[in-house]
Design goal:
By secondary structure, this protein is of the alpha+beta class. It has helices at residues 19-28, 59-65, 75-84, 130-139, 173-177, 202-221, 236-242, 273-281; strands at residues 8-13, 33-35, 41-44, 49-54, 70-74, 92-96, 102-109, 124-127, 145-148, 164-169, 180-189, 191-195, 225-232, 250-253, 260-267, 285-291. The strands form three sheets. The chain has a seven-stranded mixed β-sheet, sandwiched between helices. The protein has a five-stranded mixed β-sheet with strand order 9-8-10-7-11. A four-stranded antiparallel β-sheet has the order 14-15-13-16, covered by helices on one side. Strand 2 and strand 3 form a beta hairpin. Helix 3 (75-84) crosses helix 4. The longest helix has 20 residues, at 202-221. The two termini are 27 Å apart. It binds adenosine-5'-triphosphate and magnesium ion.
Length: 297
């Protein structure tokens, strides 16, 4: 691939909030791995693809320098480094992965004097995301001081280091535990599949494309159900209306039973027992629901 490598590399967070879901997704995309002795690599056993296990902050840099072709990282980390890097080439986000959801939020001490974002003018805001925060402040036309803190941002107000903070939040429990509340959302984030901006050879590009398609397939299959049943032809409109269906069902004729049909419909995860009971009431028989493991559009 790059540097004369003949195997593709995917950078994944070694240990943290994204690690498990990232590896699970790669497995669902059909990759099987064996860990290296030092636990820095996972060697692909069935495709020329290895996983490099690193700190999430290192992932955009590895992609920019071409040490890895693909990576899985939070959009927050990706955008922060892109903004901080100015016009330098940046990794491109290929697919939203549907996990690692959080938001970068501005929060202020409970019962304090800051009531609106306009009150932040002239104050200090602590964050680990200085570029994202500065960009947002510019867009809001607020002139505040950004203080970089690389950990324990939520205690900065109590330590007198800042008047407000800008930090990642998912449930808000950490904010509440520190007597802080949200004032505004700076960005929404989730894990994304990202690609190196470096030009690659044809073989690598093809493999990147293939993995991208498989990952997209694993994601769109997740939660999908295939519903199969037989029913009187006259019940079809009512059945179709009832289903949490993704697309028009396939309807097949049955030999020697002109009044009945067999039907297959791709449904989403909300297909439950109540739907099945309704289907029976509408005259459906042999109702079967199968989990969809993967799909290739
Ligand atoms: P590393 O050691 O790899 O640098 P880290 O401490 O920077 O780890 P984690 O806390 O594991 O990173 O978070 C990784 C990513 O998970 C975040 O960048 C963000 O995209 C996402 N995330 C989801 N929910 C949260 C949350 N409540 N707090 C922080 N990050 C979250
Ligand atoms: Mg990190």
């Amino acid at each position: 691939m790059n540097d004369g490598r003949d195997r593709l590399r995917i950078a994944v967070q070694k240990s943290g909030r994204l690690s498990e879901a990232s590896l699970d997704l790669l497995r669902r995309a059909g990759l099987a791995f064996r860990a290296s002795r030092d636990k820095l690599f996972l060697y692909g056993e069935n495709l020329p693809v290895d996983v490099l296990l690193v700190r999430d902050d290192d992932i955009p840099g590895l992609l920019v320098e071409g040490s890895c072709e693909l990576g899985i990282v939070g959009r927050n980390v990706l955008d922060e480094q892109r903004l901080a890097g100015g016009a330098a080439p940046a990794p491109a986000a290929l697919i939203d992965l549907g996990f690692g959801h959080c938001r970068l939020a501005l929060a202020v001490p409970d019962g304090g004097p800051i009531g609106t974002i306009a009150d932040l003018a002239g104050l200090r805001i602590a964050t680990s995301y200085p570029a994202l925060l500065a960009d947002w402040l510019r867009a809001q036309r607020i002139d505040a001081e950004v203080v970089l803190l690389n950990g324990s941002v939520e205690i900065a107000p109590r330590l007198g280091k800042a008047h407000a903070i800008c930090d990642l939040v998912s449930s808000g429990a950490t904010l509440a535990a520190n007597q802080l509340h949200e004032l505004a959302t700076v960005m929404h984030s989730e894990a994304v599949l990202v690609a190196s901006p470096r030009p690659r050879g044809a073989a690598a590009s093809q493999l990147v494309e293939r993995l991208g398609a498989r990952i997209a397939g694993a994601l769109s299959g997740a939660g999908a159900r295939l519903l199969m049943l037989q029913a009187p032809r006259t019940a079809l409109p009512a059945i179709t209306r009832l289903l949490p269906s993704r697309e028009a069902p396939s309807v097949l004729g049955l030999d020697g039973r002109p009044d009945d049909v067999a039907m297959q419909a791709l449904c989403n995860a909300s297909l439950d027992w109540q739907h099945l009971e309704e289907l029976k009431r509408l005259g459906a028989r042999g109702v079967m629901v199968l989990n969809v493991e993967r799909m290739l559009a």
